[in-house]
Amino acid sequence: MADAAAIAFRGVMKRYGSQVALQPTDLEISEGEFFCLLGPSGCGKTTTLNLVGGFVSPSDGEILIRGQSVNKHPPYRRAVNTVFQNYALFPHMTVRDNVGFGLKMARVAKRDAAGRIEEALALVGLEEFADRLPAQLSGGQQQRVAVARALVNQPAVLLLDEPLGALDLKLRKRLQIELAQIHRDVGTTFVYVTHDQEEAMSMATRIAVMNHGRIEQVGTPFEIYHRPNSAFVADFIGESNFIDVDVGPGGRAALDNGAEVPAPEPRRSGRATLMVRPESIQIRRIAEANGSGLRGRIAQSSFLGSHTRVAVLCDGVETPVTAALFGTEGAAASDLRPDTEVVLIWDPADVVLLEGAEGKEADAVDVN
Amino acid sequence: MASPSSEATQPADVALPLGRPARRSWTARVGEYVGFAPAIVLFGLFFLVPLGLIVCYSFWQTVDYNVVHHWTVDNYRYFFSVPTYVKTVWATIWVSVVATLLTLAVAFPFAYWLARYVPRRYQKILLVLVILPFWTSYLLRVYSWLNILGAQGAMNRFLHWTGLTDQPVSFFLYDRPAVILVLVYLYFPFAALTLYASLERFDWNQFRAAMDLGATPATAVRRILLPQIRPGLTTAVIFVFIPILGEYLTPQLVGGARGVMIGNLIVNFFQGAQYTRGAAAALLIAALIVLLLTLFRRSLEVEDPYGT
After folding, report:
1. If you ran DSSP here, which 8-state letter would residue B225 be given?
2. How far apart are CA A236 and CA A210, in angstroms?
3. Lowest model confidence (mean pLDDT) among A41-45, A272-276, B300-304
4. Considering chain B, what is the average pLDDT of its residues?
């Protein structure tokens, strides 16, 4: 098993009584990945992390770390370390002793340990704070100690359980960059749990979007954003317009009132939902329009600095369609007064057709 | 301790300060300390004064059942000249040590389990159950053990019923093991409540973190939990060990002649009108306790785990 995955789930399932926390799941995370488990609270992402960490044992299936089954291993015998949500630093120990705790448990010789502790503290930029107690550090510094305390043990996988959740927005952004930097420096596999899609998008090499104890989709941030496989994923990641249509061969998509809109070739004809990102939409005046497009009336146009948001009430679509216009297009939008009649067009390649059940779950989204 | 005037006392009638005046006049500053007055009166009149008397008594003489104000150290010399008394001191110490350790050995797992695993709403119910024995009198609780350990007691009936014995066994009662057993039972609530109070505040995530870093559960308890609840442990030891040192009812009722502790010696001295010798024995316990408290003080000095 030379090139075994860092983590593999084989039909892993977790049940609490009649409550299923994690549906039977197959998953492989490769060495060196920055893998994000993303989803709303109660979606099973923390259960998944705890299954890897050994704090929860699976009801069924097998968990492998570097090709070895760890089902029967307690947390203290697994080659994984965790950065906890509230850091869980030991308040009675100095930063140095906190970081050195894992090495002490592994009976690493004192001199080696001292060197590795210094290295780990240097990695997170806290060399000067080694003799402080955790309570004498700021939240961001405590978070860095937690990272150093876990990484110093050179784990096969570093688990991070919403590690930035307790910090304010600015600090969170800075630490996101730092964590991605640390990931590149050490090359360790990171598994990162978060409910913040922006956080996941900014750091992850791959994202697993979870909902109701199930992995909805696994892919790179690009794939997840541009090719969501369900309305849930499309709605959870970024902003989307959902338009119900009847599709037919040749990329024909008709609204309930019969008007046709641009759409890709469907897998089969019938009822479907068209997912259009606001930035994929272009706005044309009635006079300039030719061919198919979504006719509507401007409800509101808001200049937001980097872009202009335009809400359009469209015939045959229930909710207003949102378009985001950037650059010169945005500038040109300034004369789009409310009640102007317009046509919305998009490149069929930029939209996603959610067919059958894929389109059904958009309402179930609850972002914390 | 054997204070001669241990009757219930009325606290002095002193008005408690209400709020803090904005103007800090001389009277206002005195007012801030008025709250101490009842306690000072209570402890001054009914603790310090009697203690002073006991000290004096211990250096006086008893002649024909009368206390004579003649200074001497004979009472102390006498106490140490009787081998039985010295042996009783040592026995008292080891009974207290063993009983304290056993009490903690029962109370710690209980408090640990209660604080860590029991849902919060059931914790309160279980805590009430722990305090429930206090609703009955101390004497009754000790007496009830006679019905369990005695010749006609539950233990003997059970052994007889199982066929293990055909004669009642008196082994259970009237010796030190019986004393220790009853003491553990009596002092368990004190230790359990004290330990629970400090375990309840412990962040169990640290426990997960320790296990995550390779510590077995036992190591996590030793290196992460115990250092942080040390003040609670010390308090529990003090609450249990010191009262047990002065116990006299339990050894008298269930310990019999072989279960005697210093407390019984003191009572015997006073009942035999040997007030000055009793006073000396009482002060010896007091000295012992002060010595132990001084030793404990180091671990009581809580280094602030949250830094300063």
Report:
1. I
2. 10
3. B300-304
4. 84
Q: Give the 3-state DSSP-derived string for chain A, with helices as H, strands as E and coil as C.
A: CCCCCCEEEEEEEEEECCEEEEEEEEEEECCCCEEEEECCCCCCHHHHHHHHHCCCCCCEEEEEECCEECCCCCHHHCCEEEECCCCCCCCCCCHHHHHHHHHHHCCCCHHHHHHHHHHHHHHCCCHHHCCCCHHHCCHHHHHHHHHHHHHCCCCCEEEEECCCCCCCHHHHHHHHHHHHHHHHHHCCEEEEEECCHHHHHHHCCEEEEEECCEEEEEECHHHHHHCCCCHHHHHHCCCCEEEEEEEECCCEEECCCCCEEECCCCCCCEEEEEEECHHHCEEEECCCCCCCCEEEEEEEEEECCCEEEEEEEECCCCCCEEEEEEHHHHHHHHHCCCCCEEEEECCHHHCEEEEHHHHHHHHHCCCC
CB atoms within 10 A of CB A218: 18
Indicate the average pLDDT of chain A: 88
Tens digits of residue pLDDT in A36-77: 999 998 899 999 999 999 999 999 999 999 999 999 999 999
Taking residues A268-290, report their average pLDDT. 85
Judge whether B223 and B215 are in contact, CB under 8 Å: yes
Going along chain B, which residue ranges are E strands? 61-63, 66-68
Closest CA to A317 of A247, A239, A259, A230: A259
How far from the centroid of its chain's Cα atoms is residue A301's Cα? 30
| pTM (whole model) above 0.80 | no
Decide if A260 contacts A254 (C-beta within 8 A).
Answer: yes
Confidence of residue B173 (pLDDT cuts 50, 70, 90): confident
Domain coordinates of chain B in residue numbers? Answer: 83-257
CB < 8 Å from B in window 136-165 of A: 136, 149-150, 153
pLDDT for A368: 35
Q: Which amino acid is at B169?
A: V
Residue in the structure block whose two tokens are 């004979």: B74
A90–B306: do the CB atoms touch at under 8 Å?
Answer: no
Q: Which domains are delineated in chain A?
A: 7-226 (3.40.50.300), 239-355 (2.40.50.100)
Interface test with B, best of A101, A131, A152, A153 (most B CBs within 10 A): A101
For residues A330-356, give the mean pLDDT: 82
Question: Per the CB < 8 Å rule, is B211 touching A76?
Answer: yes
Q: Using CA atoms, how far apart are residues A205 and B290, in angstroms rounded to an integer?
A: 66
Residue A92 to residue B305, Cβ atoms within 8 A: yes
Distance CA A309, CA A48 (A): 38
Separation between Cα atoms, residue B82 and residue B258, nearest integer Å:
17
Contact B208 A55 (CB under 8 A): yes
**pLDDT number for residue B300:** 59
Write out pLDDT tens, residues A170-208: 889 999 999 999 999 999 999 999 999 999 999 999 999
Q: What is the residue type of A159?
A: L
The values of phi and psi at residue B134, to 5°, are -65, -15
Q: Return the CATH architecture of domain B83-257.
A: Orthogonal Bundle (1.10)
Cα–Cα nearest to B126, from B135, B134, B115 = B115
Q: What is the pLDDT of residues B208-239, one digit of tens each?
A: 999 999 999 999 999 999 999 988 898 899 88
Q: What is the ipTM of this complex?
A: 0.81
A293–chain B Cβ distance below 8 A for any pair: no
User: Pick the residue with more confidence: A344 or B19?
Assistant: A344
For residue A134, list chain B residues with Cβ-Cβ distance below 8 A: 307
Least confident of A87-101, B2-16, B244-258: B2-16
- For A55, the closest chain B residue by CA position comes to B208
